[in-house]
């Protein structure tokens, strides 16, 4: 019989399907399931901390690299969406032509709108504010295969230590993007190899800057909390 502390109110709080995930991970032990949920919240917060540091470093490194493509006297690249992300037509599986860069242009346009002061409509916001409005998904797809020649070769490889291969960055970014989405939506991480994800996080940080990797590692609580998982 479940202790009072892990009574049926838990399902009212979390919902039956949500708590069922933790019950399954805990072999139907309600006390352990609650402890796992609390641990999941703690490790999610710890990863959010580390991912935030990585994301800021990544977006600033990319922003500097893309600035290399701005002509002297030209506008900041965030205001030149059609130059850096021109229509790039490919054939989808259903035979339709699609513009692979359309979403990137739309994300930039939306970021510009959000960064523009409400009291000053029609004005151009500070580029840094636009960059801050772009989410991790925008940066993550800049290293996809389709962007190898348009972006990686001329610009983005400069964001990383010499010799860095695009597929390596893309692999790390893809897995960390998935993790970030799960953390942001308060999903269960009980079946995720979190040690592997943290290794990827530090590896990508090291490719941006060994000093950044050292800072994140030194200030991370992820290893400690991972070791404290209830069993």
Report a brief summary of the structure.
This protein is mainly α.
Name the poorly predicted regions: none
**How many E-type strands?**
2
Query: What number of structural domains do the residues give?
Result: 1
What is the general shape? elongated
Structural notes for this entry:
The chain is mainly α and 231 residues long. The chain has one domain (16-227). The chain contains twelve helices and two strands, in the order ααααββαααααααα. The chain has a two-stranded antiparallel sheet. Helix 3 (30-66) runs parallel beside helix 10. The longest helix is centred in the first third of the chain and has 37 residues, at 30-66.
What topology does this entry show?
Blueprint lengths: L8 H6 L1 H10 L4 H37 L14 H4 L4 E3 L5 E3 L2 H14 L11 H7 L2 H5 L7 H5 L13 H19 L9 H15 L1 H10 L2 H6 L4
Highlighted features:
231 residues, mainly alpha
